[in-house]
Design goal:
Strand content: 5-15%
Number of helices: 13
Shape: globular
Structural class: alpha/beta
CATH architecture: 3-Layer(aba) Sandwich
Order of helices and strands: EEEEEHHEHEHHHHEHHHEHHEEH
Number of domains: 1
CATH superfamily: Alpha/Beta hydrolase fold, catalytic domain
Number of strands: 11
Largest sheet: 9 strands, mixed
Helix content: 25-40%
Distance between the termini: 24 Å
Radius of gyration: 22 Å
CATH class: Alpha Beta
Length: 506
């Protein structure tokens, strides 16, 4: 493990065979707001860094390796939330899943020696190093590693691509619904966030950085994981990766993702990049409560990575954004699809499309862009409409085992509609192709040819009832947000240098 908020220690060395029984250990996290999301019997403990290696029944060696990074808003989740064994049907892929520290434990970022930041991301790097060192013993090829992530795991693999610490540890990247420029993927002001949460937990001496650090070190796991952060209106979940202060120890990230993308100083690997059509459905349960709040003060719903010269300017921009989606009408059941679009854009779509443009401008010519919109009769209709929509990470569940997010326990796909079975086969073929070749559609495939995207976010593959190549993805919405972010973007900054520790604490 590690000291509480620091990089993980090297894994232990076994002198005798290790009895690798699944004890359902997960990292400390709140109870899930989603019914039945956390299975019975899971054990939450600090010493939680566990890898799960799924090996096909074959004597082949040098198998391709897929490392899945789980989602959960950086505050919950575990390696075995979902399984990807169907991807292994060709018996030439090994799948690795794992836990990493979450919430305060993974992402407290005070810029001090004991809480430098990004412990959870350093856990991910440590896992990838473990794979490099050990996967050949399982029949895997350390020179053929693809990292895949969904939701916060998507933002994670997108950030790993920009980290010098992770360079050379993987060779292809599949971020599914979550980007390195997303509001929720990096803390704007990590010390301020630590102060806000400490105050929420009734600690008052927040301006003394060492007292604040001591509070987090000595507070119980139950209290530190008591808030789920899911109901925040600023499109963040509080604790997430941060830009670190350089302190002489290994860092995960010392510049903002935007700076790294603009400078082009990262290893340009093949990327399969995209999202589902109605990502914003992730916020649909809040609609009854939030519609009125949005009408009263829409500025409370602006993403946290926007900054303004004055409150007047903030309100002006908020009204401009509200008009773009809702016109002069109040937010209501009549325009609930625009509510969905708004949250799709502020959480997921714009960040990924902005990054696509920056990648290409930096000379990256292997970004394969898509939008997943497939639905069948099992997909629920959007409330107050007759329309079915592909929900957050719908494409991930098309590739993973089982039915979908609302039927986690149904890994048996016999209950899936014939249309969805066909779609799952197609999606797995595309992902398999990319894992093996770095291209989603190799030459000779029956699927439509799929060129890499240009700076205009075109072309993209529409993965819907039909699979077809289309032009610019979400052109009008993306152009609108490009303009907003060009004017008002607030980059994440590292914590300030703390004062010297008082002698009594040395």
């Amino acid at each position: 493990m590690s000291s509480l908020f620091q990089a993980p220690l090297p894994p232990p060395v076994w002198l005798e065979p290790y009895d690798a029984i699944d004890k359902q250990v997960v990292c400390p996290q709140p109870s899930s707001p989603f019914t039945d999301f956390q299975p019975k019997g899971i054990v939450k403990q600090e010493n939680c860094l566990i890898a799960n290696v799924f090996v096909p029944n074959t004597n082949k060696k040098n198998l391709s390796v897929v490392v899945y990074v789980h989602g959960g808003a950086f505050i919950m989740g575990w390696g075995e939330m979902f399984k990807a064994t169907q991807l292994m049907n060709n018996k030439d892929i090994i799948v690795v899943t794992f836990n990493y520290r979450l919430g305060v434990h993974g992402f407290l970022c005070l810029g001090t020696e004991d809480a430098p930041g990004n412990a959870g991301m350093k856990d991910q790097v440590a896992l990838l190093r473990w794979v490099q060192k050990n996967i050949a013993s399982f029949g895997g090829n350390p020179d053929d590693v693809t990292i895949i992530g969904y939701s916060a795991g998507s933002a994670s693999v997108d950030l790993l691509m920009l980290s010098k610490a992770a360079e050379g540890l993987f060779h292809r990247v599949v971020p599914e619904s979550g980007g390195n420029l997303a509001t929720f993927s990096s803390q704007r002001d990590p010390v301020e966030i630590a102060k806000i949460y400490a105050r929420q937990l009734n600690f008052t001496n927040v301006d003394d950085i060492y007292a604040l650090e001591e509070f987090y070190k000595t507070t119980s796991l139950e209290l530190l994981t008591s808030d789920q952060f899911f109901d925040r209106t600023d499109s963040t979940f509080m604790f997430s990766p941060c830009v670190e202060r350089k302190m002489g120890q290994e860092t995960f990230l010392t510049e903002s993702p935007l700076t790294i993308l603009k400078n082009g100083k990262y290893k340009k690997l093949p990327v399969l990049y995209g999202f589902a059509e109605m990502e914003g459905l992730v916020r649909i349960d809040f609609f009854p409560l939030w519609k009125q709040k949005m009408n009263e003060k829409f500025s409370d719903f602006l993403p946290a990575d926007l900054k303004f010269e004055s409150e007047e300017e903030r309100e002006e921009v908020a009204n401009k954004i509200k008009r773009f989606y809702f016109g002069d009408e109040p937010v209501s059941e009549d325009n609930i699809l625009e509510y969905v679009n708004f949250f799709s854009d502020v959480l997921f779509t714009h960040a990924m499309l902005w990054a696509t443009k920056l990648h290409v401008e930096a000379g990256h010519n292997q970004i394969y862009l898509y939008e997943y919109s497939f639905v069948d009769e099992d997909v629920p209709v959007v409330p107050h409409t007759s329309i079915r929509g592909a929900n957050h990470c719908a494409q991930s569940f098309a590739v993973l085992d089982g039915k979908n997010l609302t039927h986690l326990s149904h890994t048996d796909e016999a209950f899936v509609t014939p249309e969805y079975q066909t779609m799952k086969r197609t999606m797995r073929e595309i992902w398999y192709n990319f894992i093996k070749t770095g291209k989603p559609v190799p030459e000779g495939s029956s699927l439509p040819a799929w060129p890499a995207a240009g700076a205009d976010r075109s072309p993209h593959m529409s993965l819907g009832q039909k699979i077809e190549l289309r032009g610019v993805l979400l052109e009008e919405r993306t152009r609108f947000w490009d303009d907003i972010y060009q004017r008002y973007y607030r980059e994440p900054v590292p914590p300030p240098t703390p004062p010297p520790k008082p002698r009594s604490e040395l």
